[in-house]
Every structure is written in C-alpha cells, then in structure tokens.
Amino acid sequence: MTINLEKPNILELDKVELVAWLDQQGVEPYRADQILKWIYTRQTDSFDRMTDLSNDLRAHLADHFTIYRLSVEHIATSKDGTRKYVFKLKDGKRIESVLIPERDHYTLCISSQVGCAQGCEFCLTAKIGFQRNLSQAEIVSQVRDIKNDLKDPKSLTNLVFMGMGEPLANYQNLVAAIQIITDGRFGFGFAGRRVTVSTAGLASRLADLGRDTRANLAVSLNATENRTRSRLMPINRKFPIEKLLDACRHFPLPGGRRITFEYVLLKGVNDSADDARRLAKLLRQTKSKINLIPFNSHQGCPYQRPDEDTILRFQKILIDKNYTVMIRRSKGQDIAAACGQLAGQTEDRKQKTEDR
Ligand code: SAH
Question: Which of 112, 123, 164, 261 to mutate to test the pocket of ligand 1 (most atoms within 8 A of CB)?
Fold first, then answer.
C-alpha cells in the first residue's frame, strides 16, 4: 500500500467545497472569497502572503493544502511569435497550451483532456487516444500559470478550448473551470464572450453548456454530408448533422452572438463548390459565422490542404450567400502548435528515441 503524504492542491476545490471545508474548521464562509482572490486574481503562491487572513488561518491552510503550479517541461516559440507550452502533469502525462499573439492582445488555446476519445481522422491528438480528463485545477492552471508568465497579464483577453481533448466530454470540470475563469470577484474576470468552447459535436451537451455558462460556442462541422462526416468524425454516427444543427438552433445565444462553425478544408474530401453550397444551405436557419481551417499536416496523416484558389473559391461562395467567413491561418506550424497538431510532442520525441 502506498500512502500519499502530499497535501491536496487547493485549486482542486471549487468555492462550495472550500466554504464547506472552512465551515468544518469553524471559519466564516466569506473567507473563501478572500482566499480564492489571492490565488486567482492576485496569483499568490503562498498562504503566508494572504494578509487579510489571521496568522492562525494562514498556518492552518498551509498545514492542509498546497498551491500548485503546473510544471513546465518545454516552451517552444514559433517565428510568428506563437508560444507552445508543454506541461508535465503529476502523473507524468503531458498536455499542451498555445499562446497566440494577436494585434493588441493574446489568445490562449487550452486543453481539456489528455488525448481524446473522438477519433477524428485528421487530428493528431486523436492518434494518441484518450488517456484521461483534466481536473478543474489542471484546466484553470493553464490560464493561471501562462497569465503569470506574461509581461502584461492583462493582455491575455481571449481563451479558446481548442487544444487537446473534447471539452464537452469533460463537462463538470469544464464548467467548474469556466466559472473561475469568468468570475469577476475572485477569478480571472474574463468576459463570457471572450471564452470559446469548441466541440466535435456532442449535441446532447449543448443545452447544458448554454444553461451553465455564458461562453461562446464553436462547432467543428467539417463536412456537409453525413457519409463524409461519419468517416471523418465518428461522433457523427451518434449525432448526425441534422441532430447537431438542431441542437445548435436551440442553443441559448446571448444577444448579438453567433455560433462559430469550424470547417477543416481537406483536399478532395470536403472542399468542392458543392460542399460550399451545401454548407450555406445547412446553416441558413442558424445564427452563425464560419471559420475555414485549411488542413495542417502531421506525420502519417494521408490528408492534404487544398490549394489557395480552392480555399478562396470555397470562401467566396459562402460570402456571396452573406455569411461571415474567416480563413484561420493557423499559427505556430513550425513548432507543431497549429490546429490538430497537439499531442504532447516531447513525449513523442522521447518515445522515438527510446524506440531506437
Ligand atoms: N475537440 C474539440 C476541440 C479541439 S480541435 C473540437 O473538435 O472542436 C480544434 C479544431 O481544430 C477543430 O475545429 C478541429 O476540427 C480542428 N482540427 C483538428 N485537426 C486539424 C488539422 N490537422 N488541421 C486543421 N484543423 C484541425
């Protein structure tokens, strides 16, 4: 039998749990807000510094908990300024987060699982299979630690759950993390509209997400016919296009917002003019904008990116039908940080060395 002598990470507790623990110790519930504010808003790493708490309470907290940061194994910087963080988790598994510089702010792309169970044909994360869900603390810490690493932490304004994993398949921890991320009293105070959850299409969870958070929704549609979509994305066998779009139409969108539909362009698979016209038709009843993502290659994947003319033709057909269509020029390709290229690369490299 092994006894775990390590103290629990206080970031694993949500506010209700912290209040309950404090109550057991005879401490007033409002102290929870103070403690959480030190941890998240003020980025404190030691109970000692929580100067609005009594010395006794500070010592008592330090006796029972740690304030844990993720261990950074590797940071890769792309020539376009994109930075990929590889974190090594307590159990030795690795996750990646990608910090993307925009004109006047940063967007951070974070992971929700180690690996992924969705099995999408074109995605590298799928190739490592599903390993486990990330805890609330592991999700939030990606934001906390990277924010802390920035010269101007306020310049991190946008978050996207588009890293490793399927966020809606780790629903409880996702929602707990978003609550902290968007909380204005003790959390990071991100506006809901600056947090985007991207899903492969777990249609049955959309209503819950709309009820439990104010986050934006992005849906990876990626094909316009069920036959193609089921081949590319096995989830389509459970929730085919009609069901998915029906759930999207019922998604409670806050005023003025639209759902982003992501569409990975694969040469000869889903990039024809007919596909573009079908896509326009499919989305007619949905408040939407479209994000075209030219395929990013990775080793062993048979798909190819369409040529530039095909990409622009696809976009034009949609624009002519009055859609807002962005082409996502994925950044960080030289460090394997672009969409669909995340897989805890350091582990891969190590694996290869060990194989030799
Ligand atoms: N599981 C979630 C979030 C992670 S993927 C989801 O499926 O939405 C984030 C986006 O990257 C998705 O739109 C996905 O379709 C896209 N993507 C995956 N692999 C890609 C690749 N090789 N090239 C371009 N985009 C890719």
Answer: 123
